Amino acid sequence: MFARRRKHFGTPADKATYATLHTASLASPHLREGLTPAAAGKASRHLRDLLGTAAIAICDSSGVLAWDGIGGPYESNHRRDAKDLAAPTLRSGRTAVLGAHDVACGDPQCPIRTAVVAPIVTEERVVAVLVAYSNNTSAALVRATEEVARWVSGQVELAELNKERTRAMEAELRALRAQISPHFIYNALAAIASFVRTDPERARELLLEFADFSRYALRRGGEFTTLADELRNVERYLVLEQARFGDRLKVSLQIAPEVLPVVIPFLVVQPLVENAVRHGLESGAGSISIRARDRINEAEISVEDDGAGSDPEVIRAALSGGSGSDSVGLGNVDARLRQVYGDAYGLVVETAVDAGTKVTFRIPKYSSGVHASP
């Protein structure tokens, strides 16, 4: 006979821990948007569940950002007074425990008699307070309110870091756009002009390719795109370069269809291809190979040329942001990949003098906060 195993869901303490972590995970995405009225409003219900109080309020110097709990006339009475209750803690940064004399609204049916006001702090500055309303105050409630406020502080700081990262990424993109080779733009237009009389239809097609390339490369807004869109723009770039170099430039593409929807930072492939064309054709002719492979949880992208190669020390300087290299945006691309995914996802460059160059990087197929811009 087989004994039927009894399902074990853990001790009451295990269940309580799971419930707390689950509730916190529900509030976290909203708080990571920053402490706006909309984000605070969405998070407040989960924060009240964490504390188990009759109501909570989140206030900053402008007033009440969010309220959750009892409604009707009780809410209007206490919500009106919340800003005044929050003011001392906003100034001092110290938790306040308030009794019925400060909090009660005079309605004997109202369940709110006390409140705990705890500071929400980022970068050693009080930016808001969490007010927990109850019918009585205990040491456990005071401690719980302080801990929840401290956790909210951490989430708000992460939101600020995300904003800083976005601003840094936008600055890097502006710098990269300024770096897109002026020689390429001049030579592309010169190549188009050369076909105006001999092959007007070809000139028209190339002009449209150049317009689409410029529109993509110089677009405003959005840190991310799909690999499919990035490769489509690389194709435009190569069409323009092949119009200039003809049979001297040979291109090979091997792209796994599975990785085309993967979201990547904007303009990370084209600068690598531009470098490959520039260095691959130094001897007058060359081949470029672009590959995108499916690596289960990651996409692996590589750009390789059979050109003159380079001294590894020169590449090392380019990756560290040195200005002595003529590699377009190599350090910029490496820095942005590391900013988004961590140091394990920077560029890997294999090169030597007279041995060509291969640049490879990996992209996680799924990464929190990484979404393609429309």
Q: Return the structural class.
A: alpha+beta
Output the strand order for the largest sheet. Answer: 2-1-5-4-3
In angstroms, what separates the terminal alpha carbons? 61 Å
Main beta sheet: 5 strands, antiparallel
Approximately how much beta-strand content do the residues carry? 15-25%
The CATH first-level class of the largest domain comes to Alpha Beta
Q: How many strand units?
A: 12
**Segments where pLDDT lies below 50 for 5+ residues?**
1-6
- The DSSP helix count reads 11
Arithmetic mean pLDDT: 84
Please indicate the count of domains. Answer: 2
Order of helices and strands: HHEEHEHEEHHHEHEEHEEHHEE
From the spread of the alpha carbons, the general shape counts as: elongated
**CATH-scheme architecture of the largest domain:** 2-Layer Sandwich
CATH topology of the largest domain: Heat Shock Protein 90
Helix content: 40-55%
Radius of gyration: 29 Å
CATH homologous group name of the largest domain:
Histidine kinase-like ATPase, C-terminal domain
Keywords: Kinase, Transferase
Domain Histidine kinase/HSP90-like ATPase: 260-367
Protein name: Two-component system LytT family sensor kinase
InterPro entries: Bact_2-comp_sensor_kinase (IPR050640), GAF (IPR003018), HATPase_C_sf (IPR036890), HATPase_dom (IPR003594), Sig_transdc_His_kin_internal (IPR010559)
